[in-house]
Known about the structure:
Blueprint: H1 3-14, H2 18-35, H3 37-53, H4 59-112, H5 115-119, H6 125-167, H7 169-216, H8 218-223, H9 227-279, H10 286-326, E1 347-355, E2 361-370, E3 375-380, H11 386-393, E4 401-406, E5 409-410, H12 416-422, E6 423-426, H13 437-442, H14 450-459, H15 463-468, H16 482-496, E7 500-504, H17 512-526, E8 530-534, H18 538-542, E9 546-551, E10 554-559, H19 561-566, H20 569-582, H21 584-591
Parallel strand pairs: 3-8, 3-9, 6-7, 7-8
Antiparallel strand pairs: 1-2, 1-4, 4-5, 9-10
Helix pairs in contact: 2-4, 2-6, 3-4, 3-10, 4-6, 6-7, 6-10, 7-9, 7-10, 9-10, 14-16
Domain ABC transmembrane type-1: 22-314
Subcellular location: Cell membrane
Protein name: ATP-binding cassette domain-containing protein
Amino acid sequence: MNTFLLIRKLWPFVRNYRGSLILALLLTTIGALLAQVTPLVMEYSVNTVQGLLKRPIDNTEVIRVVGSLVAILLTKELLALLVQLGQKFLSDRIRFRMAADLYDFTISRIASYHLSFFAQDQNQIGKLEKRIDKGIDSLTKTVKNLFVDIAPMVANAAFALVLIYNKNIGVGIVATLVLPVYAYISREQTNRQKQIRRNIQEVRENKANALYGLLESIFVVKSFVRESYEQRRQQVLNLSLCEKEIRHHRTNYWFDGLKSIAEQVGIVLVFVVTIYFVLNRQMTVGAILLHIMLFNNVSAPVRHLHRIYDEYTEALTYAEGFFDMIENNSYLHQRGSLKPTSWTGHFSLQNVDFVYPNGKQALHNVTLDLKPGKVTALVGLSGAGKSSALNLLAGFYNPTRGSVLLDGQPLADYDSELVRENVGLVLQKNHIFAGTIEENIRYGRLEATTEEVIEAARQASLHHQVQQLPKGYQTEARALSGGQQQRIAIARLFLKNPPVLLLDEPTASLDAITAEQIKDSLDAIKQNRTVLIISHNISQIMDADQIYVLQEGEVVGQGTHESLYQSGGLYRDIIDSNARTLNISRLAATVLG
Ligand code: ADP
């Protein structure tokens, strides 16, 4: 990342505030001109006072001269204050509005990324959060630095230099000499700090992520009494950050010292050269004050430059990660152009291999068919690849080899929003958002009425329990039990009422009675829909029109319950083991007998 690139990337966001920027620059110029008034007035004062001393004191003249000088200085200060206020108001406006714009843009980009983006190690939630926060903060700070800090300083220094040159070229050259020395030291400083800063950013992201993980798993941490273990893990990251920060600051102190020496040498040189000209009677005594003050106008900005430069180089580092994140077109969902008005809902996987971004191959040459209007079940042990197959059918990931088809066309050719609108998902982890039960159910169809939300809850066997809660549907959904949260997800599905249902363990965390109620409700809406169900509940499997048995990512059997059971193998083992777990013979004796 370099300055030119940064400005080019920032420009689309800055462009909206062109008017404010031009005004800010105008104020900058006025402010810089005003800053030269004091040295000039001071020179004039010294020379005038010297002139007055040569004659007998005339009180009226003294009052007139001093009065007008005070009036000029006060007016200048007042004007400078107004200009500064204007600049600050404008800069805040640009800065905070731009931060909001950048944030909006980042959210819209990231939300549209393919799931594989979030599966990357460097994009874990905590790390992303830090990158967004730090990125936006340092970028907007840069814009502020550029228009509120650097621009006035540079303008101020430039006007002061012009005045010095105007007075005397020799003094001008001496005053200018210090600038390249200063710039050289600053550049060296930045180059040395670049790598340290990158490391700091990485450790900061890891720290944020580790903290996020710790807080998220606090129950597990406590139940296994792993507080001190976690504390040590945090300590290691903290210590590493600490050392890097100290090294970073220490390097800065050395370089700041060097820059301070360069500045002092500059002042001394200007002082000596001016005194030389004064003693040669080529300048008035007032020139000493004028030159020292003007040189101060040159060196003060330069002195502040390192802070701005520091923040700026920091911004460059963060900008790199930030723009990489928001400009990553390879993760953008390519929305296909196919928008059929009707389809049969015939989903299939054809010879699909699928490897997760971390290299784990979850599916090997899998071919399966979801017949329209029929229920298909996936059976297999944990880790067999059932959820992965479902993720591919839902379009969350793309297959590594082979194809995912809908009505014979690649799924990727369809408009993904249209497909998602028509597919209802209940996943193993049914995420419940921070918000009320009503809001969470309504997520299924945002325009649904309250009555429709209640009806969906009723179908998901949730309504009765919600009624018992003091705040009813306004209860915070995250305060509910796992099973209740799962029913919210199912209610969401009922509300959406899509023609295709992909269900991953829909009744996994429910008690037997609720599971049966949900099964009945699902059975009711399954009619004439394309359904894929993954379940360990054999009653839901047995009823399926077609069953696929998966083992270690491969399809090892396919057929109906009866045919698969007859042919033995894994399916038979699973059913038998289920029967034994249920203690069928005893159950039959008590229930039927
Ligand atoms: P099932 O649903 O049958 O229990 P999955 O489809 O969840 O199995 O997992 C199949 C294999 O893929 C497992 O070995 C699992 O560890 C791996 N896997 C699942 N999700 C991911 C992921 N996000 N990243 C990497 N590997 C994964």
